[in-house]
Design goal:
The protein is an all-alpha fold and 570 residues long. It has 26 helices and two strands. The chain is elongated.
């Protein structure tokens, strides 16, 4: 007998003995030699190409029994089972067709029974990501619903282990996105910092996360401090009425089946669920979390989450169908104002949300018509907060740039135009009043508010002018609206001079279309505002007039000119 045969028999006997009634039978992972034996048997199967089928057939029953015994012993095991189970899963993926073993149930069992308990173990977490990356193609083709089903668990893995696993996680990340997970994945990514806060509270209250399933919290008497915190943070109310001591975290408990608590810490994707982040209790506790020193883990996830959103939006624009993207935009609008209250994090996330929204409208302008109701609602909220003002600004630009959804959506364009009119008149009225409602605010804040209001007015009048240029039937109403602004002489001259400029442009339809027309292709020709094709100037009636003509100039109104003043006669 050769050395290789002796080694084979030894390792096979080691695995076979693990199934017998021994000290390791109820906890296979506690046998340090078992993992080494399984790895060696897998190596033999890969190396012996000539006899691989026979070797696989001989070892499979023992490895399969070992897998089942390891899964059954997890709840009582004091050792980590993750690495051993991953080696066995690799064997199932490599030789499943040969031994007629469907690996899908085994993979799901690993996620539910093992990874849910060991995601906080850095060794198991890194090995899991390596396993998923090595088998990425096979998992995507043979088990396309696996990773989308367990994306909440994988997000807990990256939330807890942080930047050291970011690169391998980003390689796995595209596999998490599918039609069934596309919408639920977005709020989960945005709420990663809140997930870290919750996990850290669980660890401080219940001990190490390694080896303990968070899902068991709903079945056991969870620590009162944790429950009180979660109740205040995620529902804004408490079950226990503590009277004078009701504000004490230690004196309150909540229902362990609290839906928001379970939604945040779940392991599997069960669809898009409403998250009640707008309650006063949520805002208060999140603000408290920000005011207290941030942990290293929280600091890392505040940097990681925007980069994950970059990957998510790139995949969305490349692979997602129009119906999913259209359904995502209202969720995006809602979450724009409900983010973890860290200044830099809010800036980075909002920048990405708005960039994606504008990119989606650029790719599919008809989304504006389909999303008329949420757009009108957001325009009506323009004064509520700075972040809602910024969202309204971007929506104004999109509505004007894309003609309210296109030439075939005239009724929608008219309704959007009316909303812009209302926003303009409300804004104009408050400007004339000199922002009396802010009289108690210090001068710096008042100046910021005035600047923001002027910026909003500039966007609104530009959207009105562009929308009327696209839909000519709106021109009379646009002239009336812009005329009111031009005559208002409000404190910020940028506003009324811009309105006056647009009124002048509207008297020159060809120039107006060149300057204010959409930059999207129309009838095979691309409108590029601000560019001049001088070679065609002598033969075409419509030319592109550069924006510098619109700059302030001394003398007569700058819109009173003819083409002969610009183009040389031959």
């Amino acid at each position: 007998m050769s050395d290789r045969e002796r080694d084979w028999d030894f390792y096979l006997r080691t695995v076979s003995n693990s199934a017998r009634d021994s000290n390791f039978a109820n906890d296979p992972a506690s046998d340090p030699s078992l993992l080494h034996a399984v790895k060696k048997l897998c190596d033999f199967c890969r190396q012996e190409e000539k006899f691989s089928e026979d070797l696989v057939a001989r070892v499979y029953p023992h490895i399969n029994k070992l897998f089942q015994r390891s899964i059954a012993s997890i709840s009582q095991s004091s050792s980590s089972n993750g690495i051993l189970l991953l080696v066995i899963l690799q064997f199932f993926l490599d030789y499943g067709e040969l031994v007629l073993h469907d690996a899908d149930p085994s993979l799901r069992t690993f996620f539910r029974s093992c990874l849910s308990r060991e995601f906080a173990d850095p060794v198991v977490a890194a090995a899991t990501l390596d396993f998923l990356n090595v088998n990425k193609n096979k998992l995507n083709t043979s088990f396309p619903n696996l990773l989308p089903q367990f994306f909440p668990l994988l997000l807990k893995l990256i939330a807890w282990n942080g930047e050291k696993l970011e690169k391998p996680f980003l390689k796995v990340f595209p596999g998490l996105v599918s039609p069934g997970s596309f919408l639920p994945l977005f709020p989960s990514l945005v709420d990663l910092p809140i997930l870290v806060v919750a996990l850290e509270k669980v660890e401080r209250s219940s001990g190490s996360l390694i080896g303990n399933s968070i899902a068991s919290i709903q079945k056991s008497a969870a620590p009162e401090m944790l429950l009180a915190l979660m109740d205040e943070a995620y529902t804004g109310s408490t079950i226990g009425d503590g009277g004078a001591d009701s504000e004490s975290e230690d004196s309150n408990t909540i229902d362990v089946a609290d839906p928001v608590f379970l939604e945040l810490l779940k392991d599997e994707n069960d669809g898009l669920a409403e998250r009640h982040w707008t309650s006063p209790g949520v805002a208060a506790v999140l603000q408290s979390a920000v005011n207290s020193p941030q942990s290293v883990r929280l600091k890392q996830i505040l940097n990681i989450a925007p980069r994950l959103l970059d990957a998510y939006f790139t995949i969305a624009l490349r692979d997602a169908n129009n119906s999913l993207i259209c359904a995502l935009i209202p969720i995006l609008m809602t979450r724009n104002s409900t983010l973890f209250p860290d200044k830099n994090y809010m800036y980075e996330v909002r920048k990405r949300l708005l960039e994606f929204m504008l990119a989606a409208f650029r790719c599919s302008p008809h989304f504006i018509a389909l999303l008329k109701k949420p757009i009108i609602d957001r325009l009506g909220e323009a004064y509520d907060s700075p972040e809602k003002t910024e969202l309204a600004l971007q929506l104004c630009w999109a509505v004007g740039e894309h003609g309210g959804g296109g030439a075939s959506h005239k009724d929608v364009a008219r309704e959007l135009f009316e909303s812009l009119e209302l926003l303009l008149y409300e804004n104009l009225s408050s400007s004339r009043l000199g922002l009396r409602q802010d009289s108690a605010v210090n001068s710096d804040n008042r100046n910021i508010r005035k600047s923001s209001q002027s910026r909003l007015l500039c966007f609104v009048i530009t959207a009105i002018a562009k929308l009327a240029t696209y839909h000519r039937e709106l021109l009379p109403r646009a002239r009336v609206a812009l005329g009111k602004v031009a005559r208002s002489r409000i404190s910020d001259s940028r506003v009324w001079t811009r309105a006056r400029d647009y009124l002048g442009l509207m008297n020159e339809p060809a120039i107006c279309l060149s300057v204010l027309g959409s930059s999207q292709q129309s009838h095979g020709h691309a409108h590029c505002p601000g560019t001049v094709n001088w070679n065609e100037g002598g033969t075409k009636m419509i030319a592109h007039i550069p924006f510098y003509i619109l700059g302030e100039q001394e003398g007569p109104p700058f819109h009173d000119f003819s083409f002969s003043d610009i183009l040389r006669r031959r």
